[in-house]
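Sat 14:20. Reprocessing the chain from the morning session after the first attempt stalled halfway. Input below, unchanged.
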Amino acid sequence: MPQVLHRYLFREAYDEAVKAGLDICVDCSLCTYLCPSKIELAEQFAEAKEQLRKERKELKAAMAGEE
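Finished this time. Tokens:
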């Protein structure tokens, strides 16, 4: 449901976007192609997934430094 993911990401509600399925997006770009508003959804989803990867990597590194 790309429209739901878009709403969450627009509000920067990344946790909700992940719960709604951001992680299972296969980056096919069909959502962008079909979007009647011509929103670059695939680009938005890719950027959000990259941001989440960075945050998870930083969190993992911080947790490893605490041990």
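The first helix runs from residue 2 to 10.
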